[in-house]
TrEMBL record:
Name of the protein: START domain-containing protein
The organism's taxonomic lineage, starting at the top: Eukaryota, Viridiplantae, Streptophyta, Embryophyta, Tracheophyta
One function term, GO molecular function aspect: lipid binding
InterPro entries reported in the protein's UniProt record: HD-Zip_IV (IPR042160), HD-Zip_IV_C (IPR057993), START_lipid-bd_dom (IPR002913)
Pfam families assigned: PDF2_C, START
SUPFAM superfamilies reported in the protein's UniProt record: Bet v1-like
Organism: Erythranthe guttata (Yellow monkey flower)
Plastid is among the record's keywords: no
Length: 676
């Protein structure tokens, strides 16, 4: 009888799925357009082969136009793109043609391996190591530029007025801005190297902080691309040292010059990544007990790298690391760049244009938090380990959580050329979906469907973070808890903030359930730039393997989580925090209070990497996103007795095209890891 009841439940779910798919098919047929005239098309008018050819033709034309844009930026001469393409909807790699329109060129779901191998977008295993290097006869020029750039960085770190001035705006609240005229006068050599068109925006920020890490360890991390990525997992998606241009005979770090590549990310598919090739120079001042790390652009060299798209160039930027007692260091950071914002969604436009998204404050906030985490990782005087058998097992569990955080950050951004698709043509829509075909270890093999949305919440950053990181309060969200509660069996504190911790949670299921015991690995971390809560299901055997010191890289992780960004940062800079004032469009701007909540979900849609994604899966995960944010807002609203009409105003944004549909059910265990 129980089996019959379970079969009935499954059949009813499949029936609902078929109904929804049938509805979408009918809607698609009604919206088919003739590729010649744009009018309504008759069924059977276009053959399958012709459809596929036109889809491929449209994709190739898009790639050609993109290359034209890049060539135009590199050569300075316009390149004529192809003529207009027929009115044809692009394939979403679904079973059927989809009526969903696209918001940006970057939003087409494609197989990442089909992206062109552009020089500024090297694949992880295909960095341009043996081409476009600094020639031997240019190395003396590179060292001269390194010394000049270092002097410029020192002045930008130490000088105030007139280089950094208070704006006349009464709403500045004590912040400073870079005086571009004074900068051009003081550093005319830097400005005259290669003038760029005026449409590129100058972005400059400055900040200072004390971190719990000595200068030697910090310098070693900055000069090692892999360690640099681990130090900033939410900012640096990939980095590579392409050439050791110069090093001292003694092998000492001081005086070394590296040619590097880096891709910088903001943890959202609504903000494009920034890619750059640059030179990094390191110098030690023994008298002052300080180190200088400076990055500067590749201007004036014979083999110049083509600019990235959107355009991004690092002007002399970097940090001064001053030794302090007890293993601490004071770090003064300057970020200075010429940027082209590209297709940034309006929900993040003010954060990017104000310098908050990629500025010095964010770099230092992440550095402070990661240094505290590293101190916790290396701690040896911990007496109470709970169920964790040893200090080595504790370290292995922290490393596994670090990989989970990095995987989540990479999977919900636009790094590695990852493209995303909008589910609505509305400018307010923030829902983006993408698929990945995974065949490598570290994630479950198959076709993975990811969905991300960002919503403004009228609650403080801390209030939302504390709610999401607490497994007991998060159990109130039925869409995520699936009716099961969580019990913490292990806890690792990794920072001064009580919310910075790693937890191992047991899923409490009914005593008569046939489900095997499953665990949830969760890490939550918070700093001034924002907060992250990431978790994934993991089976007991995998945890045992990680704790026993076996290689955890083969453990498949498919995390989901939340990113909370506080608003009002652009108006709350004090002390040495500095941003470049830039005009911005006030239409559609977010309030200067509350926070932005980004929800990222992932599900293994199929264990076959080449499988087709059916439309019901897209509808289901979109519905799940909408329900998650609605329930978070409802619970927080009940706690704070705040405005009740928020959900009504935002359902249209989150639930585009599925407001009135009964979405197929996705179980929580399907969304939090491969164990199910």
């Amino acid at each position: 009888a129980q089996q019959d009841r379970q079969s009935n439940v499954v059949l009813r779910a499949e029936n609902e799925s078929l109904k929804n798919e049938n509805y979408q098919l009918q809607s698609t047929l009604r919206n088919l357009a003739c590729p010649s005239c744009g009018g309504p098309a008759m069924l059977g008018e276009m053959g399958y082969d012709e459809q596929q050819l036109r889809i491929e033709n449209a994709r190739l034309k898009e790639e050609f136009e993109r290359v034209c844009c890049l060539v135009s930026q590199y050569t300075g001469r316009p390149m004529q793109p192809m003529g207009p393409t027929p009115l044809l909807t692009h394939s979403l790699d679904l079973d059927i043609m989809t009526p969903y329109p696209r918001k940006f060129d970057q939003d087409h779901i494609t197989d990442n391996t089909m992206l062109p191998n552009l020089p500024f977008m090297p694949e992880n295993s295909n960095f341009p190591v043996n081409s476009l290097m600094i020639l031997d006869e240019e190395k003396s020029l590179a060292l001269d530029l390194a010394v000049s750039s270092m002097d410029q960085l020192l002045k930008m770190c130490h000088l105030a007025d007139p280089l950094w001035v208070r704006p006349s705006d009464n709403n500045a609240n004590g912040k400073h801005v870079l005086n571009l005229e004074e900068y051009a006068r003081m550093f005319s050599w830097s400005v005259s190297l290669k003038q760029q068109p005026h449409e590129f925006r100058t972005e400059a920020t400055r900040d200072s902080a004390v971190v719990i890490m000595n200068s030697i360890t910090l310098v070693d991390a900055f000069l090692d691309a892999n360690k640099w990525m681990e130090l900033f997992p939410s900012i640096i998606s990939r980095a590579k040292t392409l050439q050791m241009v110069h090093s001292e005979a003694s092998g000492h770090a001081s005086g070394s010059l590296h040619l590097m590549y880096a891709e910088l990310q903001f943890v959202s598919p609504l903000v494009p990544t920034r890619e750059a090739h640059f030179l990094r120079y390191c110098q030690h001042n023994e008298e002052e007990g300080s180190w200088v790390i400076v990055d500067f652009p590749l201007d004036g060299f014979q083999n110049d790298y083509p600019p990235s798209f959107p355009y991004y160039k690092r002007r002399p930027s970097g940090c001064i690391i001053q030794d302090m007692p007890n293993g601490y260091s004071r770090v003064t950071w300057v970020e200075h760049a010429e940027v082209e914002d590209g297709p940034i969604h309006q929900v993040f436009s003010s954060l990017v244009s104000s310098g908050v998204a990629f500025g010095a404050q964010r770099w230092l906030a992440v550095l402070q938090r990661q240094c505290e985490r590293f101190a916790s990782l290396m701690a040896r005087n911990i007496s109470d380990l709970g169920v964790i058998p040893s200090l080595e097992a504790r370290k292995n569990l922290m490393n596994l959580a670090q990989r989970m955080i990095r995987t989540f950050s990479l999977n919900i951004s636009t790094c590695y050329g990852q493209s995303w698709t909008a589910l609505s043509d509305s400018a307010d829509d923030t829902v983006r979906i993408t698929t990945r075909k995974v065949t490598q270890p570290g994630q479950p093999n198959g076709l993975i469907l990811s969905a991300v949305s960002t919503t403004w919440l009228p609650y403080s950053h801390k209030q939302v973070f504390d709610f999401l990181r607490d497994e007991r309060s998060r159990a109130q969200l039925e869409v995520l808890s699936n009716g099961n509660s969580l019990h913490e069996v292990a806890h690792i504190a990794n920072g001064s903030n009580p919310g910075n911790c790693i937890s191992l949670l047991r899923i409490n299921v009914a005593s008569n359930s046939s489900q095997s015991v499953e665990l949830v690995l969760q890490e939550s971390c918070s700093d001034d730039s924002g907060s992250v809560v990431v978790y994934t299901t993991i089976d007991v055997d995998a945890i045992q393997m990680a704790m026993n010191g076996e290689d955890p890289s083969c453990i498949p992780l498919l995390p989901l989580g939340f990113v909370v960004i506080p608003l009002g940062q652009t108006n709350n800079y004090e002390g040495t925090n500095v941003i470049t004032k830039q005009p911005s469009d006030q239409n559609g701007q977010l309030p200067d209070s509350g926070c932005l909540l980004t929800v990222g979900l992932q599900v293994l849609a199929s264990t076959i990497p080449t499988a087709k994604l059916n439309l019901s899966s897209v509808t289901a995960i979109n519905h799940h996103l909408c329900s998650t944010v609605q329930q978070i807002n409802a619970v927080l609203g009940n706690c704070g007795n705040t405005t009740a009409n928020f959900s009504e105003n935002n359902v249209g944004i989150l639930g585009a095209n599925v407001e009135n549909e009964a979405a197929p059910e996705i179980k929580t265990t399907d969304l939090v890891g491969p164990a199910s």
